[in-house]
Amino acid sequence: MADELKGRKVAVLATDGVEQVELTEPVKALKEAGATVHVIAPKGGQIQGMNHHDKGDMIPVDAALDSADPSSYDALVLPGGVINPDQLRLESKAIDFVRHFVQSAKPIGAICHGPWTLIDAGGVKGKRMTSWPSLRNDLTNAGATWVDEQVVTDNGLVTSRKPDDIPAFTRKVIEEIREGRHDNRRQQAAE
Fold first, then answer.
1. Which of 38, 52, 100, 113 is catalytic?
2. What CATH number belongs to 9-190?
3. What is the pTM of this model?
4. Confidence band of 190 (pLDDT split at 50, 70, 90)
């Protein structure tokens, strides 16, 4: 549905080395669902996309991390690629940005190596998750229950394993954003 996320703002946090399709396809699906989507990176300008081991396209950045306010977004997407989340883990502002979504219980979608950043932001303990298989021990050691499934949802956290999972991943992320916004309104009405 073209307007199911109308009025929602989604942040996609990435940097150089992002697996291109894990950024571009969710952005496309979210925009088609009516969301406003901003690619946020530690630096402005553009970031280098990757097609596995090969350089892909340069991807425009909508906002530099310094100027992005996480409280103005309804949800967060963390694309993978090996280099991207590994670099983001070294950026304290990126970890703080992700931690806002974890602590606010806002919907988060993380695919492939994207969950690495969630470990540093304290967002995996007690969660049922999936990822690229090489993250299994990292997630388990951080307190998550790792499973090998196409898409896993645990209280607003949506995780998937690889580019082949993108259609299922984006459907679940859109669903969680739609429901997350609804639940927030219901909670506000009860107060």
1. 113
2. 3.40.50.880
3. 0.93
4. very low
